[in-house]
Recover the amino acids of this structure.
C-alpha cells in the first residue's frame, strides 16, 4: 500500500516536472527563435563607401581614374589607330612612285605611331641607309616609350590601391585599439566595430580596384607589344628598298 502511494507520488512529481518544463519551453522558445533570427540590416553600397572613411573615398577616386585611363587606352592603342591600313597603303603607293616628298607631307599631316616613324626615316633619305635605320630605331623607341607611359599609370594604380587599403587597415586597427585603451580594456564589440569596419572596408576596396586593373594593364601591354612589333616589321619592309645591295647579300 505504501509502495503504491510512493509510486503515485513520484509519478505525479515527474508529471509536474514535465509540465513545468513544457511551460518553460513554451515561453522561452519564441525568445530563442527571435534571437536566432536577428539579422544585420542590409548594407547599401553608398553606406559601405561612407563607412570606409577618407581612405576609402580616395580608393574610389583611384578606381574612377583607372576606368577613364582604361577606356582611353582601349580606343587609342588599337592596331588600327597606331597604324591605319589606309595610311599604310598610301605611303607604300607613294614610295613605289618615288614621291618621297608627298609621303613626308602625308606623314606630317596624319600623325600616328606609323607615320611618325616613317617620317623620321623619310627625312633621312639621301644620307645613307645606316642613318635612315638609326633614325627609324630612335623614333620607334621614343614612340614606344610614349605609348607604354600611357598604360604605365594603370600599373601604378594597381600597386597603389592595395597599399592604400593596407593603410586604411592599419589606421582602423589603431582607432580600435585606442578605444580599448580609453575604456580601460572594458570596450564592448560595438565600440570597436567602427574602427574594424574601416580596416576591412579599405582592404576590400583596395583589392577590388587592384585586381581588375592589373588584368587590364596586362592585356593592354601585351596588345601594345604585339602591335609595335607588327608595325615595326611593316616599316622595315617599307624601307628595305633603300638597303644597299651588297649589305642585303
Amino acid at each position: 500500500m505504501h509502495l503504491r502511494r510512493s509510486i503515485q507520488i513520484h509519478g505525479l512529481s515527474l508529471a509536474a516536472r514535465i509540465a513545468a518544463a513544457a511551460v518553460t519551453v513554451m515561453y522561452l522558445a519564441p525568445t530563442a527563435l527571435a534571437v536566432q533570427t536577428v539579422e544585420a540590416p542590409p548594407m547599401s553600397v553608398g553606406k559601405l563607401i561612407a563607412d570606409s572613411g577618407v581612405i576609402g573615398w580616395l580608393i574610389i577616386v583611384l578606381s574612377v581614374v583607372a576606368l577613364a585611363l582604361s577606356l582611353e587606352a582601349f580606343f587609342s592603342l588599337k592596331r588600327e589607330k597606331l597604324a591605319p591600313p589606309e595610311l599604310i597603303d598610301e605611303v607604300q603607293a607613294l614610295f613605289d612612285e618615288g614621291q618621297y616628298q608627298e609621303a613626308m607631307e602625308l606623314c606630317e599631316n596624319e600623325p600616328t605611331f606609323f607615320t611618325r616613324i616613317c617620317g623620321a626615316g623619310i627625312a633621312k633619305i639621301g644620307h645613307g641607309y645606316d642613318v635612315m635605320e638609326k633614325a627609324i630605331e630612335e623614333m620607334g623607341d621614343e614612340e614606344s616609350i610614349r605609348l607604354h607611359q600611357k598604360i604605365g599609370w594603370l600599373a601604378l594604380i594597381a600597386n597603389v590601391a592595395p597599399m592604400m587599403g593596407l593603410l586604411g587597415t592599419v589606421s582602423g586597427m589603431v582607432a580600435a585599439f585606442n578605444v580599448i585603451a580609453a575604456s580601460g580594456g572594458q570596450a564592448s564589440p560595438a565600440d570597436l566595430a567602427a574602427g574594424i569596419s574601416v580596416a576591412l572596408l579599405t582592404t576590400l576596396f583596395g583589392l577590388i580596384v587592384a585586381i581588375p586593373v592589373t588584368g587590364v594593364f596586362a592585356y593592354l601591354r601585351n596588345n601594345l607589344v604585339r602591335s609595335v612589333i607588327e608595325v615595326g616589321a611593316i616599316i622595315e619592309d617599307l624601307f628595305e628598298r633603300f638597303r644597299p645591295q651588297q649589305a642585303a647579300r
The CA atoms of residues 67 and 213 lie 8 Å apart.
